[in-house]
Every structure is written in C-alpha cells, then in structure tokens.
Automatic annotation (TrEMBL):
Record's function text: PPIases accelerate the folding of proteins. It catalyzes the cis-trans isomerization of proline imidic peptide bonds in oligopeptides.
Entries under InterPro entries matching the protein: Cyclophilin-like_dom_sf (IPR029000), Cyclophilin-type_PPIase_CS (IPR020892), Cyclophilin-type_PPIase_dom (IPR002130), Cyclophilin_A-like (IPR044666)
Domain PPIase cyclophilin-type: 8-241
Record keyword Amino-acid biosynthesis present: no
Protein name: Peptidyl-prolyl cis-trans isomerase
PROSITE patterns, A to Z: CSA_PPIASE_1, CSA_PPIASE_2
BP GO annotations: protein folding
Catalytic activity: [protein]-peptidylproline (omega=180) = [protein]-peptidylproline (omega=0)
Organism, as annotated: Prevotella bivia
GO molecular function, one term: peptidyl-prolyl cis-trans isomerase activity
Family: Belongs to the cyclophilin-type PPIase family.
C-alpha cells in the first residue's frame, strides 16, 4: 500500500494511493521520487471545494502569474472505479482539461486536487442524481455523434438541413434508449451516508479520476481551503509543498 507525505507550511498531510488506480498511483509515485512537486505551490484554492497543486510552473512563480497549465507532456487514461471510489472529503483526484477538448476525460500528468467540499442534504443529492442522468444521456449522444462524424460532415457540406435534422432526431432517440438501458445513476448507500455527514463534491463523481485519500491531516486541508486568495483563486501567501514517498 503506497503512501505519500505532503509537507506544507500549515503542516503535513499523509495520503494513501489506491491500488485500484495503478496508472495514476505509479505516475504519482514516480514524480514524487523524482522531486517533481518539490517547491511548487497549491496554486488554486477554493473554499468549500478543493485545493489544487502539481503545476511545475508554479515553482517560484511571481504574484499575478496565471497558473494551471503546466505539467509533463503526457496525460493519463481515466481510471474511474465508480461508485467504489468517489469524491468524499479528503479524496485525492487528478485534474484535467474540460470535456470539450478532452472527451475521454484523461488526467493531467501531474496536477491533482484534494477535496474539501461540503455536506449535502438528501434532497440536494437527488437533484445531483438528476443532473448525472442528464450528463449520462449527453455522454451517450456525444459518443454517437463521434461515430457518425463523417456522415454529419457530409450533410453539412451539402447543406442538407432536412437530412441533418433527421439524423439528429435519430441520434437523440438512440441516446435516450441507450441511457435507459444503462439505468439512472444513483448514489450508493455509502455515498449518501458520506456526503450527508463527512461531505465532499458529489457532482464530480465519475468525471475525474479519484486515486487516493487523506489518512492524516484533514485539519490541514481545512485550514488551507479557507485562506485568502486573489481573483484567480491563488492564495495571497504561497503555500509551498514537498512530496515524498513513505
């Protein structure tokens, strides 16, 4: 069982890396052993949400510099182990670019975030389940449009609006049918218990890879997530980090 220690000016955080996400685990261990994270900062901190780090460009970055795009020249395939691994408070997850440029939801090679979040009522979780169902149907539709990409392009080139509308209607119907076959996304009893008591960010579930969890130092996360930040969510006083493998 692999563990790492994140040393910060606020105190130390001990994180266990999951064996169920071996690509993310092994990559993080490799970077930590190389000292890749040392001297970088938590460059994005949002209260009641998360703290984010892992951008090598944040090392000795002057105040006001835009951060969040740095990292090695590779991404990591998504490793969703859901609903077993989810965004509870203290979860270690991989940052990534958005779906519009990254439909496979591959992870950044180095950037990560640790969840703080908040607690949710049962009613709020039901609303998120509805949003998840809509997202699932959209994901299925996007997958279908990818399969029909050449046909769609031909119809557009020929300005065949009737044909394009007919194909769109067909894909929407197929997406609804396939989404129905998959079943409506619902939170497990463990998730409901956790999100209503400990807290987290349930709206990120099955969207970003969760690959570890904090075993010691949640109080450190709590302090960091509440620090004062600038308009780009960077702490006014840099919170530098050192990461070592235990």
């Amino acid at each position: 069982m692999a563990k790492i220690k994140i040393t910060t000016p606020e105190g130390n955080i001990i994180v266990r890396l999951y064996d169920e996400t071996p690509k993310h685990r092994d990559n993080f261990l490799k970077l930590a052993q190389e000292g890749y994270f040392n001297g970088t900062i938590f460059h994005r901190v949002i209260e009641e949400f998360m703290i984010q780090g892992g951008d090598p460009n944040s090392r000795n970055a002057p105040k006001g510099k835009m951060l969040g795009t740095g990292g090695p020249d590779y991404t990591i395939p998504a490793e969703f182990v859901y609903p077993q691994l989810f965004h509870k408070r203290g979860a270690l997850s991989a940052a990534r670019t958005g779906d519009e440029v990254n439909p496979e939801r591959e992870s950044s090679g180095s950037q990560f975030y640790i969840v703080w979040g908040k607690t949710y009522s049962n009613g709020e979780l039901k609303q998120i389940e509805k949003q998840m169902a809509m997202q699932q149907e959209q994901d299925v539709f996007n997958g279908l449009t990818k399969q029909y990409r050449n046909q769609i392009m031909d119809l557009r080139r020929n300005r065949n609006r009737i044909g394009l509308q007919a194909l769109q209607d067909k894909l929407i119907a197929e997406a609804k049918a396939k989404s129905k076959e998959l079943g409506k996304p619902v939170f497990s009893l463990e998730q409901i218990e956790t999100y209503t008591t400990l807290g987290g960010t349930p709206f990120l579930d099955n969207q970003y890879t969760v690959f570890g969890e904090v075993e010691e130092g949640l109080d450190i996360i709590e302090r960091i997530q509440s620090v004062e930040t600038d308009r780009n969510d960077r702490p006014l006083d840099d919170i530098t980090i050192q990461i070592e493998v235990l």
